[in-house]
Amino acid sequence: MSGAPDEGVDLNKPREACGVVGVYLPGGPVAHLSYLGLYALQHRGQESAGIAVSDRTHITVVKDMGLVASAFDDRVLAGLEGDLAIGHTRYSTTGSSSWRAAQPFYRGLDGTEFALGHNGNLTNTAELATSSGMLDGVVTSDSDLVAELIAQRINTTPQITRTRPREAVTEALAEVLPSLRGGFTFVVADRDRLIGVRDPHGIWPLCLGRLNVGEQAGGDAGSSQLSGHQPTVGQPSVSQSGGGWVLASENPALEVVGATFEREVQPGEMIIIDAAGCRSLWPFAGPSATGDRAEPHLCIFEFVYFSRPDTTLAGQNVHAARQRMGAHLATNAPVDADLVMPVPESGIPAAQGYARASGIAYGDGLVKNRYIGRTFIAPNQHVRSLGVRTKLNPISSNIDGRRLVVVDDSIVRGTTTRSIVDMLRGAGAAEVHLRISSPPYRWPCFYGMDTGTSGELLAANRDLDEIEAYLGVDSLAYLSLDQLVEATGVPGGGFCHACLTGEYPVEIGAGARAEVFGSVADEPNRSLIATGSVQPVAVAESVAG
């Protein structure tokens, strides 16, 4: 068993890489629509924000550190006129947190130019940089690397730029994509086209919407499945006349800009949007290359934590899925208690489901300060403990003398959870029973979810009793993987659950594994993993023990 995780004041939640949006609307306010789309995706990244706009002659990129509202105002947006745009909001997983690493990335070449926004993480960044002859410091991140690879490809095939300049970026991107490994979505803009890409495993979401000028949003976002409708290869899907198109990480961003949900971008699909309409290419080897359905591996934490509650994934509402997770917890791990309370805000739907299924009263026990940043410097334990209270503070009148069921979506490092338990006991809680609406988080993610190294994960090499003792709770129960998948509503849809099982759908290079695990001996004990073979009754019995 490794030592205790490092202390800190962050909320210790899994943090996903980025949110992306793309808008194609000739003659429309594409920069303003991109801004609104990014605003709807702010939860996916708060470090930096950027927008790139093409007026068919030039591409202009504006980006800055901070939130979307800090990076843009009416004056900045008014100067960004054009027919198509892409936007990006970032949380870094590869590369530094700096203006230079902010996106979109831009490349200006002889005869063409493009901008690129990326959500996710590549697992073969070092290998790609070495094979392409790049020196240290040339690129700031895996996203910057992809932009450089596309530029290199264009430069090494000048005949394309001379004879088919409008095809240069599209063809170069299609040739670079098969070399990429990991989980990723891209939005790319050249002077005339908006392009969207989803990796062959579909680890991160990307959806397509139709923007009809003068109409309100209202499409049926529930019509797609993870492996749903497959468009005909190379065939425009809908006429372009009278409107435009929007790409976004989550469908609420479509609704915010007035777009109607069309469908999810399929794993391995490359969507090209221009004056001719919207068409699909399949640049990756394997089933997706022929337009056949590729087996999806959507990150299951999109349902657990990442996506907005009003997002629809694979035809299922995320909020309802989280309530079902809580209901399963109530059935699998019941306990006599006086109040069911969430850890706000991500624990709210599961707590509602738990309360409804158990018959125990639901109420608030913690108030979250929505206006404080993610982290701040905490020089000692006393200041760290105060730091947690600036984000979450107990409602003593709802807690004093009561037996509490505290529901949260996940535990990563555990430091904040332990501080919360201490606060609840300090406010007079008679008992604290912790219920988590996902299995133990034991393995680091290599595809774009920032959770630190293996040694920082509370459950990596601890059993249930050890975790319970570390957190100081009266009982602890996790949801099993089977029950989690069932709660999503798409049990046959296919998910990436590597962080819960250690089963990675995309190969991880030896260098990347060593950086995270240190050595094979440091990898989590597979015997502790809560896989689908763990039955719900076993979880309940562990809690009772």
Structure description:
This protein is an alpha+beta fold. 29% of the residues lie in helices and 22% in strands. It is built from 19 helices and 25 strands. The strands form seven sheets. It has a seven-stranded antiparallel beta sheet. A six-stranded antiparallel beta sheet has the order 6-7-8-9-13-14. Strands 18-21-22-24 form a four-stranded parallel beta sheet, sandwiched between helices. Residues 1-11, 215-241, 374-381 and 529-545 have low confidence and may be disordered.
**Global morphology:** elongated
Number of strands: 25
The helix content is: 25-40%
The SS-based structural class is alpha+beta
- Using the CA coordinates, give the radius of gyration: 23 Å
What order do the strands of the largest sheet run in, or round the barrel if closed?
4-3-5-2-11-10-12
Distance between the termini: 21 Å
**What average pLDDT do the residues reach?**
83
Largest sheet: 7 strands, antiparallel
Task: Give the count of helical stretches.
Answer: 19
Low-confidence stretches: 1-11, 215-241, 374-381, 529-545
Proportion of residues in extended strands: 15-25%
Write a short abstract of this structure.
By secondary structure, this protein is of the alpha+beta class. Helix 5 (142-156) crosses helix 7 (168-176), helix 10 (318-332) crosses helix 11 and helix 10 (318-332) runs antiparallel to helix 16 (481-488). The two termini are 21 Å apart.
